[in-house]
Amino acid sequence: MSVPPGSLRSPLEGALSYEGKEPKMALDERKRTELAENLERYVDPRTVELLMEALSAADLANLATKQDLQALDHKVDLVEQRLIAEMHRFGRNQLLGLAAVIAVFNTGLFAVQAALS
Question: Is 61 in contact with 29 (CB distance < 8 Å)?
Fold first, then answer.
């Protein structure tokens, strides 16, 4: 089963959410600016500028949250269970078909053997 494009949406569109008691952070330009200012304390300004360009607010909105990944993991588990069930069903049908062919072959073989004796 494939998941149609765009069907998995974050329940927190427009915000990053962390489990537990960590604060929610809105994905707006003010927060990006604050992040850049804090980062400049530890990293040179050019690196901060490159990071901010690479990680725009629009890009942040497309990042998966922990909840997104957990939901996706759950869906993958369900697909895996269905696939395993289908493989078992297919294997059982193949085995039953093979058993029927062997039974017909043996019946024919015994009939030929009985006719020759």
Answer: no
Polymer length in residues for the chain: 117
Show the CA angle centred on residue 106, arms to residues 105 and 108, nearest 5°: 65
Q: Residues 6 or more apart from 34 whose CB is under 8 A from it? A: none
φ and ψ at 68, to 5 degrees?
A: -60, -45
pLDDT digits (tens, 9 = 90+) for 11-30: 434 444 444 544 445 557 78
Strand partners, 61: none
Three-class SS of residue 107? helix
Tell me how far the alpha carbon of residue 86 is from its chain's centroid: 19
Q: Which residue, 70, 56, 58, 60, is CA-closest to 8?
A: 70
- Residue 91 CA, chain-centre distance (Å), reads 26
